[in-house]
C-alpha cells in the first residue's frame, strides 16, 4: 500500500481515504501465544496430602514435619499448598506407589 502523503502530515489535513489507508496499515493481525499454562498438580491441606500418599492425616503431618518434602510445601499460617508431583518425587514414590526400600507411610 503506497501512501500519497508525508507521515509528518497532521491528521486534520488528511482526507478520509488517507486516514483509512493509514489505519489499515497500522492494523496488522497480532498472534498471541499463551505460555502461561501450568501443568503442575496441587493438593491442599493435610487432608489432600493424606489422600496423595494414601495415609492418615496424622501420618501426613509427620511426613510434612520430617522435612522430606519441604521443597514441595508452601505454608502461610494454616494454609498448606503442596506441589503433588514434586512431593511424590521427593518422597520416593511414583504415581502414588512407593519405590523399593523407601518406607513413607
Provide the gyration radius in Å: 29 Å
What does the largest sheet look like? 3 strands, antiparallel
What is the average per-residue confidence, as pLDDT, rounded to a whole number?
A: 82
CATH class of the largest domain: Mainly Alpha
Roughly what fraction of the amino acids lie in strands? 15-25%
The tally of helices reads: 4
Architecture per CATH nomenclature, i.e. the level-2 architecture of the largest domain: Orthogonal Bundle
Protein name: DUF3853 family protein
Pfam family, one: DUF3853
Organism: Candidatus Ordinivivax streblomastigis
Describe, in plain words, how this protein is organized in 3D.
This protein has two domains: 1-31, no CATH class; 42-98, Arc Repressor Mutant, subunit A (Orthogonal Bundle). It has four helices and five strands, in the order H-E-H-H-E-E-H-E-E. The protein has helices at residues 16-26, 45-53, 57-66, 84-91; strands at residues 42-44, 73-76, 79-83, 93-94, 97-98. The strands form two sheets. Strands 1-3-2 form a three-stranded antiparallel sheet. Strands 4-5 form a two-stranded antiparallel ribbon. Helix 2 crosses helix 3.
